Amino acid sequence: MSVEQIQTLVDALATRLGRAVVVDDQELRLVAVSEDFGDADPARIWSLLHRRTRPEDVCFDRIKRSTGPGHIPENPDLELWQRLYVPIRCRGLLLGFVWITDRYGDLPDVQIADAARTAETLGSLMYGRWLAAGHEHGVRRQLVEQLLSQDAATRRAAREEVLDRGLFDVDGPVAVLLAGRGGGAEGEDTGPAFAAAVERFCRGLPAASVLAACRPRRATVILALRPADPDAELDRAAHALLAELSAEPALAGCRRVGAGGPVPTLAGLPTAKRQADIALSAAGTGSVALWSGLGAHALLAQLAPPVWDDTLIPRGVLTLFADPSAAVLVPTLETYLDCAGDVQRTARELCVHRTTLYYRLGRAEQISGLSLRDGRDRLLLHLVLGLRRLHGATLPGSLPRRTALPTYVESEALNVRRRAG
Predict the structure, then answer these.
(1) pLDDT tier at 13 (50, 70, 90 boundaries)?
(2) Helix H segments across 148-264?
(3) Which of 14, 60, 71, 320 has its CA 20 to 30 A from that of 249?
(4) What global pTM score does this model have?
(5) Could you tell me if 240 and 201 are in contact, meaning their C-beta atoms sit under 8 angstroms apart?
(6) Of 71-85, 99-113, 157-171, 257-271, which range is least confident?
(7) What integer pLDDT is reported at residue 133 of this predicted model?
(8) How far is CA 98 from CA 17, 49, 191, 322, in A?
């Protein structure tokens, strides 16, 4: 199937109807457009400029189940005129849509039937296109998996193929991005939106610098980077991928990106993939995590999520977590340890007086039975708090950092301060 065949059919239909004809694929991406007959509304102009149709403009959730022609009603808020749509299907598979402006509903039945017959012919052509694209995606996914293989011979063969086919133009610095998605709302299939977002990201990069494989819940993207500043380029790419995922309303609250590398050549991709896996596990919802920025969390993220009520966590730490004042004492302790025990800096971070800080730290020691003057106890507390932060464990009645202590605690702190004064 050639794009020229589709374009010829579209141009011929537009000539017969005396109206502009647009064809999108099943993901509302532009495939072909005829000459303009002066019947393009602002919504159509936007779609032509961006080479895609906005789902909300055309009631996509409803019309994607249609089997025959129908009308999208006029919507002044969207600056959209009434238009005819004809689903393009083959063997029951939705492959796209034909769009024809019908602002005043005066398109005669004979011309609607003509558009429907053209859609049938387009369906046969686009079905072949879909099969070819599916085969190509399968080949690329297989190459990605081979490039990340632990077997050196498999990686070498895949490297030669991607270079021979021009999928990468240089064998220089490379990195791996992993995008993960959650399940979305109950009963909602976010897989197509996820795949579309990843594909848009890839199309925004030079053709010979990206190779992607998309699974239902995770996408793997291999990037070729410019040697000048690969770290900065990887950071920009990771955030660009997150931005594409965030642009899909269906993915709200269930998308994150992890980045591994850069590594010097394609041979180092398994290492970059492992790093990206760890970074993805440390990334919060709607955020990016880069291996290079994880620091000590890169090691903590490789540990299994702890069981907070198990004997694997020292009793003193569990006692502190269960205490009624833990919602304030634990964030105070965490900030103190992150500040390397610098009292002045910790007090500034928490916006409290040093006397209050000393009291809180003393209470944490008293409750846990651990000493902040003992390096081993400090290491233990810092590790457990780091695991808690990474794995999302919550405390009963937890409060944001820099909040007021319960009254009885603050009152005692004030008494200490008065006695000190």
Answers:
(1) very high
(2) 152-164, 191-203, 230-246
(3) 71
(4) 0.51
(5) yes
(6) 157-171
(7) 62
(8) 13, 18, 24, 62
